[in-house]
Each structure stands twice: as C-alpha cells, then as structure tokens.
C-alpha cells in the first residue's frame, strides 16, 4: 500500500534527489524560467513556493533557512532583496508549469517552470479563462477588477523604475 | 522440445495483428500561428498558451 507515501522519488536515492531539487530551485531563482521534465517540475514547484514564503517573511532566521537549501549564496540574497518585490502579491502559487512537448531521445514529457513576476503579468490578465470566470460571478468580477487595477498600477510603477534605471 | 504442430493460418495471423495499429495523438491547431499543438501544451512555434504569450521563442 502506498498510504501516506507522498512525494515522487524520481528514480534517485534520497541524497541524489535532494541535490537535484536544490540545484533546480537555485536555477529557477537564477534564471526565473527553467525547462525540465514534467515530473521534476512538479517536484520542484512546492519547494520553490516554500522558499518564496520564507523570503516574504524576510527575517534573519528565514534567510538562514533559505541559505541552507539554495546552492548559491548570491541567489538566496537575490531572492530576498530583488525577486521578493517583483513577485505577484498572492498567497502562494508564485510559479507555473507549462507542458512543452516530449524530449527527443527518450520521449520524456518536458515542462517549463516560470516564476510569475509582476511585470510579465500584463498579458495574463487577458486570458479568456479568467473572463469566463468573471462573468459567472459578478461579485468576484468586481474584486478581480479592483485587483487588476492595483496590479496595473504596480506594473506602471515598475516600468517607471525600469525606465529611470535605464536612463 | 515443444514445437507448434500446425502452421498458423494467414487468417489467424492477421486476426492477431488486428490490434497492432497506431493511434493518432489529439493534435489541435494553435489559434495564433496555426501550427499543430498537443492538448494542454504550449505552442512551441509561437510560445502562446491559452491566448497569452508565455515563453519567448527564438526565431531561426
């Protein structure tokens, strides 16, 4: 029986698995988008979310907890100092997994893991799915609109900041 | 050693093979660039998913 046996083993022993996941989390925060196999992407996502939750807490203990997991010190500090403010204002779900075909060679299903950063969310507001949901419940629509306005303002501010940096 | 007593007829051979066909994947077409796309997959040609551009695809 597999009762209460959560998690995927990924065909590795525990130390190898831990090393792979630590490397992937580090790479995700470094590049903000990584492509991997679907199984590894799904194993990575909750860990990345937990790291971000720690970063949002932002105290010294949280920073040390992240430093003890992430492979690269500078990436851990990037998460606390830079990425934290660029992430969307939500309670979890800071990343998304996109299916990206099967790998040549072994036909393994591949996926792209992305951090959902504020500046890039512009486009996702226009998704047809969200519109359908909004029509279903008018109350939700209102709250969503408010949220969207707030996000747009945040995006504008971000753009201004970027522009000032460039100049 | 155990060996078959009779040759299998063409009919029986072909009936065995009646299940050996391949199945087509459920390919649909990207609404933006009309390339074939697998269900629940990003379009690897133009990088759109659900009508939004999600990944940057380098054009060759």
What is this entry, summarized?
The complex is a heterodimer of chains A (167) and B (60). Chain A is mainly α and 167 residues long.
Strand order of the largest sheet of chain B: 1-2
Structural class of chain B: alpha+beta
Task: Characterize the biggest β-sheet of chain B.
Answer: 2 strands, antiparallel
The greatest inter-chain interface is formed by: A-B, 13 and 12 residues
Q: Tell me about the biggest sheet of chain A?
A: 3 strands, antiparallel
Strand content of chain B: 5-15%
Low-pLDDT stretches of chain A are 121-142
Q: What's the arrangement of strands in the largest beta sheet of chain A?
A: 1-3-2
The shape of chain A is globular
How would you spell out the order of helices and strands of chain B? HEEEE
Radius of gyration of chain A from CA coordinates: 18 Å
Q: Compute the average pLDDT of chain B.
A: 88
Low-confidence stretches of chain B: none
Level of helix content of chain A? 55-70%
Number of helices of chain B: 1
How far apart the termini of chain A lie comes to 62 Å
**Number of H- or I-type helical stretches of chain A:** 6
CATH topology of the largest domain in chain A: 50s Ribosomal Protein L17, Chain: A
Percentage of residues in DSSP E strands of chain A:
5-15%
């Amino acid at each position: 029986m597999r009762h209460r046996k959560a998690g995927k083993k990924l065909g590795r022993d525990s130390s190898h698995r831990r090393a792979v996941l630590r490397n992937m989390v580090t790479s995700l925060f470094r590049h903000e988008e990584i492509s991997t196999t679907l199984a590894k992407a799904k194993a990575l996502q909750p860990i990345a979310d937990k790291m971000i939750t720690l970063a949002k807490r932002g105290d010294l203990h949280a920073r040390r907890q992240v430093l003890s997991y992430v492979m690269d010190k500078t990436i851990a500090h990037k998460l606390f100092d830079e990425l934290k403010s660029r992430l969307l204002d939500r309670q979890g779900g800071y990343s998304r997994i996109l299916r990206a075909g099967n790998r040549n060679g072994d036909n393994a299903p591949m996926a792209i893991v992305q951090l959902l950063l504020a500046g890039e969310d512009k486009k996702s507001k226009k998704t047809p799915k969200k519109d359908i949901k909004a029509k279903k419940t008018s109350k939700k629509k209102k709250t969503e609109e408010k949220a969207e306005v707030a996000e747009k303002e945040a995006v504008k501010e971000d753009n201004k900041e970027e522009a000032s940096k460039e100049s | 050693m155990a060996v078959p007593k009779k040759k299998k007829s063409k009919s029986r051979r072909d009936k065995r093979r009646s299940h050996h066909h391949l199945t087509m994947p459920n390919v649909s077409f990207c609404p933006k660039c009309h390339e074939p796309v697998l269900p629940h997959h990003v379009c690897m040609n133009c990088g759109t998913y659900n009508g939004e551009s999600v990944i940057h695809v380098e054009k060759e």
